[in-house]
Amino acid sequence: MQLLSKQLEGQVRNSSMIRKMFEQGIELRKKFGADAVCDFSLGNPDLTPPPAIIEEMKELCETVARPAGLGYMPNAGYPDVRQALAEHLSVEQQTAVGAEHVVVTVGAAGGLNAFFRAVLTPGEEVLCPAPYFVEYGSYCGNYGGVLKPVPSLKPSFRLDLAAFEAAITEKTRAVIVNSPNNPTGVIYTRDELVALAKILDNATAKYGRPVYLVSDEPYRFLAFDGAEVPAILPLYTYSVVIGSFSKNLALAGERVGYVVCNPAIENVGELVGGVILTNRILGFVNAPCIGQRLMKAALGTNADATEYIRRRQLMADVLTEAGIEFTMPAGTFYFFPKAPFGMDDKEFVSLLADELILAVPGSGFGCAGYFRLALCVNTRFIVQARDGFRRAVEKARAIMAERQS
Question: 65-97 burial, b for 16+ CB within 10 Å, e for fewer?
């Protein structure tokens, strides 16, 4: 008997790779102990929230005791929170943004779903660079849209602008970019984004309707070596920025994000109103009230991410010693190395698991031949994994040499 929809059955099959790594980690910990397993599979931030969060939580204990302290609010979020967020984003995006252009959402994931529900007609396409965050396909597919990945240039993972131009058709409704990027850590330059915006300008004129540029920015705060994360809104009229406070304020479980629509969009109120409506009818209703208050109190601050700088360099040293090829991430807390000797990424990840090292195959991100490592772990696990990486590479070398003989 068919219990699930045919569409969801396919999504469950496609998500099995990441689920398998999660389940394998549970089994390995049971067998060998939690301290023996070096789990780099999940991007779950392990930072301490900034002091403003802690102080606001104390204040909220008094607020929630009042009548309607945890009651309903406007679907777009508390008015004062929207205003504060608009002021913050005006600086960050180098564009004057009003509260009327901002919707507070249930994380960036909720924001993406609300936006795609508002603009996609079944059969329309959303382009994105590959590799990409694995759930983009589901976020589009939820509303009949089709994700159309465009492979990035290798090994740099820069945008292949010619490929984007060739991929755009009358079905293209949006392009989504994620910078700094999960899983590669690449940060797209201003020149790249200006060139992409020009392509979208031409497509919008050609097809007589907007092709949106959606910038997914949960990792904006985590750029290394002084790298610039360019503001999107000044670069393209039909641009939308979607972000969250899961990483920079260590509020992942509170699910607070936002959608900000470019004020330069003609009749922008119609677009914002559509997102507010979809935010409600999808069942989100509104972003968590406590999370909104915590976010407002901590706007302009970040959790201390200096530990990620140290882990980044340490992981680079470990991978280099093991002979694993990688591009140094310019941002995020991920590495996206290449599976050695041309080995299948799933096979190499299996070799790592034999060494009690958990990673995610790049196939799960639309880029076979690579694997993702998350630095959301205690530094001692990176050190502990040093010999395991080296042994896995030696096993891969022997296996591939035997196959070629």
Answer: eeeeeeeebebbbbeebbbbbbbbbbebbebeb
Residue range of the domain that includes 126? 51-298
Contact assessment for residue 152 and residue 159, using Cβ atoms and an 8 Å cutoff: yes
pLDDT reported for residue 195: 98
Rama region for 7: left / alpha / beta (φ>0; ψ in -120 to 50; rest): alpha
CATH number for position 289: 3.40.640.10
Tell me: pLDDT of 62 over 90: no
Domain end point (choices 235, 268, 298): 298
CA 270 to chain centre: 27
Only one residue has tokens 């058709």, namely 169
Closest CA to 149 of 332, 371, 363: 363
> How many CB atoms neighbour CB 304 within 10 A?
12
In whole angstroms, give the CA distance from residue 105 to residue 84: 15
Phi, psi at 88, each rounded to 5°: -65, -45
Whether 337 and 373 have beta carbons less than 8 Å apart is answered as yes
Block residue for tokens 């009358």:
170
Residues forming a β-bridge with 148 = 127
Backbone angles phi, psi at 130, to 5 degrees: -110, 135
- Statement: residue 24 has pLDDT above 90: no
